């Protein structure tokens, strides 16, 4: 197949300008002058016979034609970059894009990741952490590790394990906790799930009249635990994800009562083909579950 000449410099200038909505910021990224970027875009517009941007006093506004062109150009450059990234010293390396809820990444995955790297040296992991809210399609993720009930639209989910929640705090605060009802006098730390503390109080036998649900809300258990380590309050978090803090004595679990509001799941879009790297990671993580 003979392809027409592709104006790669113009397309590159257009894509960077569209992301920044500025010729100046695009020029900084591309290490060229603002005039060079502007000329490249003008040349592309002349070739296509349409305007890709409206030039405004304070930046750019992309036109409908530019909006139509941008996804194809972005995807093409991303694919080329990924392919080039896979080739290193004459060896093709497989990329694996993994989105992980931050608590799981810090509390379980990272301490075991060296083993995966030893077993699969030609798989390059690209890990992005999130607060359990993620768009696998938009972010181009092969796998996501999420917390919940395993039901996500268009997704295949395989259960990893439960992560029950329990109060965790520094020893100094725990000294003032003789019974679960004493938590009513503490600052309670929680995630964006509003029913966590009330569910735990019910499991611990604390009547509703004695329950206090006011506190500090965090978008991840990682941030919540950092606040707990600094003595800002009592966190309701999964002890299994913070075993290092518990073992060191920096954090204690004052009460044995736990509640389960979900599990961690390994998920992928049903529409995403399974690659050899994905097979390898799935096999590895489930073998780790059995240890």
TrEMBL record:
CDD domains: PBP2_LTTR_beta_lactamase (cd08484). Residues 6-63 form the HTH lysR-type domain. Keywords: Activator, DNA-binding, Transcription, Transcription regulation. It holds the Pfam family HTH_1. It comes from the Bacteria. The keyword Zinc does not apply. GO terms for molecular function: DNA-binding transcription factor activity; sequence-specific DNA binding. InterPro entries: AmpR_PBP2, LysR-type_TF_proteobact-type, LysR_HTH_N, LysR_subst-bd, WH-like_DNA-bd_sf, WH_DNA-bd_sf. GO terms for biological process: DNA-templated transcription. Gene3D superfamilies: Periplasmic binding protein-like II, Winged helix-like DNA-binding domain superfamily/Winged helix DNA-binding domain. Belongs to the LysR transcriptional regulatory family. This is LysR family transcriptional regulator of beta-lactamase. The lineage of its organism: Bacteria, Pseudomonadati, Pseudomonadota, Alphaproteobacteria, Hyphomicrobiales.
